[in-house]
């Protein structure tokens, strides 16, 4: 875990006081809403349907038990007793009072957390792989790079009024668990000749014009990554479109001028910028890396798990992933109970997750872009105890990557931009497919729901995706098939005319029936779709 | 309230700034104004005869002027670099960091608020144009010898 | 009818113009006729509301019902958290929102 030094702490503390000052100016009338809005957004404070909403950054998805406990306390003290984990490793509080916001930020600062740049046309929270540091196949832990980028991007003087928001993800495994290529810039750490550097992808994103990011450079050394990114951002800041907010993301620039031309401009700028001394010395990344050293794992632990309790065995098979150290496991905690709200956790559940991390996971937690939690360093011998505690807290759903592990944005129940409600639909789908055997039989099936075209629910990247639209004041849902946010990234295709809420649940059932009838030896839903194409599904749905 | 703010020693340039197009087409002007979307690099061959570059911000949300400022400073321009237009107090610090050394906002700024903004943050994470030593360099003083 | 809604500046609560002040209950909403925009500007300037806007609504025996689902959800609260709703009612609330 990274720990702030006095420099980091001073910056976050100063930000709290700056926002306190801005908030007081707003409450006293010295600032109009038009003037205040960009200031509050730069600090993650939105005005949503029912109240102010505060989005707190969880940098690269890593949290200490103490930080998690604080998030739960804030949910209880300032909100209505819960929080919502988002698809970009942030936490949202839905019921914040403006006057309380500075105090909440001050409390967050006591545990080295903040809401800096969780909104606005700036570089947002840097996201990463929830298995960073514990998966066997990674080239290096991506989080030191992400922390280096967090610091570089915080209050960047040149890139705070970009054409549009800018999202960066860093991964280091061939398995992409962070939807890296659906980010404005994605970095994948590689080690071609014994030296770790980054492959750089640029121009991915979702929204109304989804794009999978192309590779723009196959290697950037660690001591040049900052100047290279400055070059990428400068080209975007100067030439990204500003005439239409829907065409302002970097993906449109890369698409319109072409990958080759974007790459050429970046290289030209990079040749200039690499000479300016913008890169921290390698000692700085080395310093950050020391904070992410492996915890003091015990050796000689058994890999045996007592599977005599069938419900526990089912949970282990579904929620537990391989850890690189013998005797240890990665535990995924589902925030997708069948009748729950995807990504929501009560203050008590958040506190329990903190307790579990403290007792069983070297004080550490992760949050995932799929809106679940992870205990990254659990002794296999402790799994049963943890499972029992999760069962008692309603957190033991065994559905990781199954059809009921639904990603859903807050939708029209909370969001001022939404056209349709995502959560009730997610609940209806989960109820329809609740049967554990049925889910297991369907296997990996990533279902993602967005309540509007902005695609916070990643519907383009769902094996099955759903987009809510407003049809003359009535909620309507379009169905998409064939998307993926993983290493085999692809964009889903719309099946055809949209459906009512119940209609789309029926359509999904027809789609899964076709899959079950057509699949061949161990194919996932996505594989079958890619092999047989849209037509049979379309016939089943509309035929 | 402050209508004009300068961090330069001595007088500010008074000559009216001309457009980039008319500047590059004539030889006697010494003050030029860059609009968003114009290429600051067009000025680079002429920097030694420029005493004032104005960068216009028609709306505070259009951040192209920050890049324009850095580009001319990175090329060695030492004359006055002035931000004009929709320049707000909450942006002065970032503009200073990008090399602006004078400000002529469309709406006057509150002096006290400017002071507070300029003194809010003791340290910065990035190397930019203003010569402030970034935090990473302070953390590793042994790497900063020349 | 035309009604005026927005959020309380300090608390963020959804509020409805009730004729002589703001209410948290949509059932108190008053017809603002053609004065909505003018009222909105005055109330925003007085720091009592943020993001005020005029909407269409109907009035029947069940009370005031905003025309658009988004405003009905604002009036009711998140439909997925009936434990948090702002407007207690005996009616079939699901139907009221949809």
Automatic annotation (TrEMBL), chain A:
Instruction: Tell me its cofactors.
Output: [4Fe-4S] cluster; siroheme
Q: Which domain of life is it from?
A: Bacteria
The protein here is known as Sulfite reductase [NADPH] hemoprotein beta-component
EC number of this enzyme: 1.8.1.2
In this protein, which residues make up the domain named Nitrite/Sulfite reductase ferredoxin-like? 52-109, 342-392
Q: Where is the Nitrite/sulphite reductase 4Fe-4S domain?
A: 119-272, 403-541
List the keywords (alphabetical): 4Fe-4S, Iron, Iron-sulfur, Metal-binding, Oxidoreductase
Which SUPFAM superfamilies does the UniProt entry name for this protein?
Answer: Nitrite and sulphite reductase 4Fe-4S domain-like (SSF56014), Nitrite/Sulfite reductase N-terminal domain-like (SSF55124)
Q: Please give an example of a GO cellular component term from this record.
A: sulfite reductase complex (NADPH)
Q: Which GO terms describe its molecular function?
A: 4 iron, 4 sulfur cluster binding; heme binding; metal ion binding; sulfite reductase (ferredoxin) activity; sulfite reductase (NADPH) activity
Q: Which Pfam families match?
A: NIR_SIR, NIR_SIR_ferr
Instruction: Give GO BP annotations, semicolon-separated.
Output: sulfate assimilation
UniProtKB/TrEMBL annotation, chain B:
Q: Name one Pfam family in it.
A: DUF934
Superkingdom of the organism of origin? Bacteria
InterPro entries according to UniProt: UCP030820 (IPR008318)
Q: What is the recorded name of this protein?
A: Oxidoreductase probably involved in sulfite reduction
UniProtKB/TrEMBL annotation, chain C:
Cite the Pfam families for this sequence: DUF2849
What is the protein named?
DUF2849 domain-containing protein
Report the source organism.
Answer: Sphingobium indicum BiD32
């Amino acid at each position: 875990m990274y720990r702030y030094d006095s420099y980091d702490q001073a910056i976050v503390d100063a930000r709290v006081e700056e926002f306190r000052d801005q908030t007081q100016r707003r409450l006293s009338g010295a600032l109009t809403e038009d003037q205040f809005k960009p200031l509050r957004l730069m600090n993650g404070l939105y005005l949503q349907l029912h109240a102010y909403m505060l989005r707190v950054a969880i940098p690269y998805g890593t949290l200490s038990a103490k930080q998690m406990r604080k998030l739960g306390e804030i949910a209880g003290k300032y909100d209505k007793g819960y929080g919502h984990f988002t698809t970009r490793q942030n936490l949202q509080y839905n019921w914040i009072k403006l006057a309380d916001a500075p105090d909440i930020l001050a409390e967050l600062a006591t545990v080295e957390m903040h809401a800096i740049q969780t909104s606005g046309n700036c570089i947002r929270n840097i996201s990463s792989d929830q298995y960073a540091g514990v998966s066997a196949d990674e080239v290096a832990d991506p989080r030191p790079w992400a922390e280096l980028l967090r610091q570089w991007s915080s209050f960047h003087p040149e890139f705070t009024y970009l054409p549009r928001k800018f999202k960066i993800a860093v991964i280091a495994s061939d398995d992409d668990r962070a939807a890296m290529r659906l980010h404005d810039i994605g970095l994948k750490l590689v080690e071609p000749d014994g030296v770790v550097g980054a492959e750089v992808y640029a121009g991915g994103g979702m929204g109304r014009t989804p794009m999978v990011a192309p590779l723009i450079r196959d290697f950037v050394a660690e001591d040049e990554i900052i100047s290279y990114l400055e070059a990428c951002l400068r080209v975007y800041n100067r030439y990204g479109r500003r005439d239409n907010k829907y065409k302002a993301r970097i993906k449109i620039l890369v698409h319109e001028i072409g990958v080759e031309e974007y790459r050429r401009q970046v290289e030209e700028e990079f040749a200039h910028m690499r000479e300016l001394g913008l890169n921290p010395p390698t000692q700085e990344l080395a310093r950050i890396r020391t904070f992410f050293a492996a915890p003091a794992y015990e050796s000689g632990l058994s890999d045996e798990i007592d599977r005599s309790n069938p419900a526990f065995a089912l949970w282990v098979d579904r929620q537990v992933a391989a850890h690189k150290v013998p005797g240890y496991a990665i535990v995924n905690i589902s925030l997708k109970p069948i009748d729950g709200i995807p990504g929501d956790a009560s203050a008590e559940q958040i506190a329990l997750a903190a307790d579990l991390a403290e007792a069983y996971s070297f004080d550490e937690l992760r949050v995932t872009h799929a809106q679940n939690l992870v205990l990254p360093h659990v002794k296999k011998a402790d799994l049963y105890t943890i499972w029992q505690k999760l069962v008692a807290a309603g957190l033991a759903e065994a559905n990781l990557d199954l059809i009921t592990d639904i990603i859903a944005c807050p939708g029209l129940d909370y969001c001022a931009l939404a056209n349709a409600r995502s959560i009730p639909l997610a609940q209806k789908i989960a109820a329809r497919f609740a049967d554990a055997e049925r889910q297991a039989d369907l296997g990996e099936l990533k279902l993602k729901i967005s309540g509007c075209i902005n695609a916070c629910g990643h519907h383009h990247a769902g094996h099955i995706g759903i987009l809510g639209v407003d049809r003359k004041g009535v909620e309507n849902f379009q169905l998409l098939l064939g998307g993926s946010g993983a290493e085999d990234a692809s964009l889903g295709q719309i099946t055809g005319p949209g459906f009512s809420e119940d209609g789309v649940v029926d359509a999904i059932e027809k789609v899964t029936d076709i899959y079950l009838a057509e699949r061949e030896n161990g194919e996932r839903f996505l594989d079958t779709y890619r092999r047989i194409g849209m037509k049979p599904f379309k016939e089943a749905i509309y035929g | 309230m402050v209508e004009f703010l300068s961090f330069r020693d001595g007088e500010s340039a008074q000559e009216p700034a001309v457009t980039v197009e008319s500047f590059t087409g004539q030889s006697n002007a010494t003050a030029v104004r860059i609009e968003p979307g114009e290429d600051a690099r067009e000025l680079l061959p002429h920097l030694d005869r420029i005493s004032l570059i104005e960068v216009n911000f028609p709306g505070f949300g259009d951040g192209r002027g920050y890049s324009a400022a850095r580009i001319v400073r990175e090329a060695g321009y030492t004359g006055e670099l002035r931000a004009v237009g929709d320049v707000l107090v909450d942006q002065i610090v970032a503009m200073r960091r990008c090399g602006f050394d004078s400000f002529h906002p469309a709406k006057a700024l509150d002096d006290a608020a400017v002071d507070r903004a300029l003194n809010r943050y003791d340290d910065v994470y990035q190397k930019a144009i203003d010569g402030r030593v970034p935090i990473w360099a302070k953390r590793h003083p042994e790497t900063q010898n020349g | 009818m035309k009604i005026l809604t927005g959020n309380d500046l300090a608390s963020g609560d959804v509020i409805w113009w009730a004729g002589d002040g703001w209410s948290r209950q949509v059932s108190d909403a008053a017809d603002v006729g053609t004065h909505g925009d003018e009222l909105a500007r005055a109330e925003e300037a007085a720091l009592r509301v943020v993001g005020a806007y005029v909407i269409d609504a109907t009035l029947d025996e069940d009370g005031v019902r905003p025309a658009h689902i988004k405003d009905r959800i604002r009036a009711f609260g998140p439909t997925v958290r009936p434990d948090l709703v702002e407007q207690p009612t005996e009616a079939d609330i699901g139907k009221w929102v949809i």
